[in-house]
UniProtKB/TrEMBL annotation:
Domain of life: Bacteria
Keyword Magnesium on entry: yes
PROSITE patterns per UniProt: G_ENGB
HAMAP family: GTPase_EngB
GO MF, one example: metal ion binding
Pfam families: MMR_HSR1
UniProt function note: Necessary for normal cell division and for the maintenance of normal septation.
Keywords carried by this UniProt record: Cell cycle, Cell division, GTP-binding, Magnesium, Metal-binding, Nucleotide-binding, Septation
Family: Belongs to the TRAFAC class TrmE-Era-EngA-EngB-Septin-like GTPase superfamily. EngB GTPase family.
GO biological process, one term: division septum assembly
Cross-referenced InterPro entries: G_ENGB_dom, GTP-bd, GTP-bd_ribosome_bio_YsxC, P-loop_NTPase
Lineage, broadest ranks: Bacteria, Pseudomonadati, Pseudomonadota, Alphaproteobacteria, Sphingomonadales
Protein name per the record: Probable GTP-binding protein EngB
Amino acid sequence: VFAGPIAFLKSAPDLKFLPDMAVNEVAFAGRSNVGKSSLLNALTNRNGLARTSNTPGRTQELNFFDVGDPLRFRLVDMPGYGYAKAPKDMVRKWRFLVNDYLRGRAKLKRTLVLIDSRHGIKDVDTDILDMLDAAAVSYRIVLTKADKVKASHLAEVRHSVTEAIRKRPAAHPDIIATSSEKGMGLPELRAAVLESVTQ
Ligand code: GDP
């Protein structure tokens, strides 16, 4: 299905711009610069499908991509968070948009939360994990940039992340390690996306 048509549908800076709930959705979340655009592009084998989002003050929006013709499911690129210099009202806007989306979206089957392999789960990430748990939206951790760390460090991060999510009600216990650069973990990620939207 990832070899077939995938097309940008629309951006929603606000809930009134959300597309209809025609099909299941799987969303991607992560702090700015975690490698979300790179991973979406690698996942779909399309350069430039998702654009880098780490520009300060950039509009916060949800981006929807239609997968398959006929339409099978949607990928949703959530706005990045944790940008150090983000103004307060931008952070507030992010929280409102993301919270409203998570709480009102029956077709959202799972969110993949991207975490940098070098850093593990940081304070900036706990906000989204709390929101997902509170909204009872299933999520799964995807480690990014795994090529940047040694195998021993990756094993440690896997372990610490597993511990960190153990008691979180909506967390999927299995973690996927990926590298957009090296193509690592992409088949597993594709399978996880398909599993999410076909459940
Ligand atoms: P976004 O802000 O989360 O969309 O992050 P980007 O996809 O723009 O990536 C941020 C930076 O990390 C860019 O300089 C990318 O080239 C780099 N990057 C992304 N993925 C990888 C990866 O798998 N390996 C390495 N080494 N660098 C990566």
